[in-house]
Amino acid sequence: MTSFTPDFRHLIRLSDDTGLFEHARHAVARRQHGYCTDDVARGLVVVSREPTPSPRLIRLSECYLTFLTHAQDRYGAFHNRLGFDRRWRDPPGLGDWWGRAMWGLGTAAARHASPWIREEALAAFVAGAGQRSSHPRAMAFAGLGAAEVLRAAPDSAVAAALLTHAADSVGPSAEDPFWPWPEPSLTYANAALAEVLVAAGELSGDRPLLDRGIRLLTWLCDVQTRLDRFSVVATAGWRRDEPRDRYDQQPIEVAALTDACATAALATGDPAWLDEVRRAADWFQGANDASAPMWDPATGGGYDGLTEHGPNLNQGAESTLALISTMQHARALP
């Protein structure tokens, strides 16, 4: 990786003709753990963002899109876990994986370089857009897919309805200025909740909603900054008025912040948000609590977590996709 150039080598290594392997031992895919819709959907997001994808990346797009349409049932819900034997391990549902599948499909429908992939992805998106999840993060992820569709097709009523419901599912902000977050704790993919408010406010012309999303994202960036570096909430989470663990930090949290800050920059035109995108990219390059690079130059893979002893050297799909996603945003920095 030169500067902030996305590196797809390890994503290709983790993919076969079925999908994207979830886990790896160092850089070697662990086939016994199979595939999951969560990661395949994230994979479709990043390959769809490439303006001039190589033939190999287009092939990945086809594979990931086929996986998602195979995972989707006739009601629009999705299976999540597929074994290496190509048998589903769970019934279709509306958990986070449904939201991420909708995000991937919406991004492909709006951005992919191949017209036929855009068309097929939109059909699958519409098939799932009538569903609603009881989980706020699942709704936020789906809302981000709806926002992608709306930017490409502003008259899409089904996408507009889904985005509105996604923003509503975030819930009201807390009244405490020291903890305005709508939940009593920070858990995972927190920035997606702020991002969907920003996107919904921008695309609907609802300035108070946009401002609310910006306030939450500003607070989230502030509480996850230490010595001018991102220090994201660890896997244990952080509950209001309780001590906060410093480790184990996950790359997906940095990627979620990057996505949200890039959306804020687009919605507001404020270049200060691009500084946050740069800080997120720097986290992967070593500007973190362990002063350690969070990717392997030999493989292009992203490390699975930041511990007090340095990186977890396993290079699974989630962390590698977080690396690629962040570098895609950073690539456009002035």
TrEMBL record:
Q: Which UniProt keywords apply?
A: Transferase
Q: Which InterPro entries match?
A: 6-hairpin_glycosidase_sf
The answer, when asked if Transferase is one of the entry's keywords, is yes
GO MF annotation list: transferase activity
List GO BP terms, alphabetically. Answer: carbohydrate metabolic process
- Please give the name of this protein: Glycosyltransferase
